[in-house]
Specification:
Oligomer: single chain
Distance between the termini: 61 Å
Number of strands: 11
Shape: elongated
Structural class: alpha/beta
Radius of gyration: 22 Å
Bound molecules: 6-O-phosphono-beta-D-fructofuranose
CATH architecture of the largest domain: 3-Layer(aba) Sandwich
Strand content: 15-25%
Order of helices and strands: EHEHEHHEHEHEHEHEHHHEHEEHH
Amino acid sequence: MKKRIGILTSGGDCPGLNAAIRGVARASYALFDAEIIGIRGGYKGLIEGDYQLMSKYQFSNILTMGGTILGTSRTPFKEMRVVGDDNVDKVAAMKENYEKMGLDCLVTLGGNGTHKTANMLSQEGLNVIGLPKTIDNDIFGTDFTFGFHTAVDIATDVIDRIHTTAASHNRVMVVEIMGNKSGWLTLYAGLAGGADAILIPELPYDIEKVAEVIEKRSIENKNFTIIAVAEGAMDVDEARMKRKDREDKRKEEGTNFISVRIANQLREMLNVEARTVIPGHILRGGSPCAYDRVLSTQFGVHAAQLISNGTYGVTVALEGEKIRHNSLAVIAGVPKPVTPSNYIVRTARSMGVSFCDEEE
Ligand code: F6P
């Protein structure tokens, strides 16, 4: 049975995308008479008809490669149904190109935004399968997304390396880790790297409590402090504000970087030497770790099995040790926040790590 598969990667890149693409391709070639079309640059490529028929050879030697061989872009879901100045009806264009390519299904690798568009296309009648990727690990219905563990390893390495220089100089080091809406990455890396305080968007912090962590350590003759903060963390006052007001407040303060603001406040409050470290996109770069290679491959193989069975309108997921799939309609765009009762949060608190939140 011949099946033509379109595949695209959308949203921010992350390690493991190529391993997942390879998984889909190799398992599909093995299971049925597959033809694979690579769509370039995410949904943008699907809208503009930018694609190519791939050869088996193009899926070789990409397991360890970071980024995505297909390229990616961000096409926000909320703009999908908006006809802009170019007069292009994006949804109609995607459906037309799907037909033009003669696809039996479309495999989309991405995060929450990608899944929302995948679900919309599925409801428009296309056969769609999603694969959950993001370093943020914030997709509902899957224990882990691929890309997350690699980013945890990199962020942990950053925190590890900061320890020696922080201790040598008696400094407070504020390490800002990606994660605008969710703090999974900061939580795991903070615990793995031995941070003294972990500040995440889901648990608004009190700057007085951050200062207390430093003072307490100083009383115990610990001359340095490491604070891991997620880029989207907010203090208790900001948490009560509307997003727009919060953004205006940050503009007034003159910095968008939460680490810079916290370091400034701590310098003023405690007269300590506080410095910031912002690894930024380094957290998304380079080769996937072994865990992500395995997970990406498992997700890819499961997607190929779904295609073989003709099961569409779903996204692949990890549940415990099993690879399963969830309905796109159920999980698309549903976030997975860190909850106060999360077992990693509890473990960290038991270790004396402070979240500087209302529970403390
Ligand atoms: O969603 C992954 C992520 O790396 C977030 O952690 C971060 O907030 C965002 O992407 C950054 O996006 P961009 O690469 O478009 O600046």
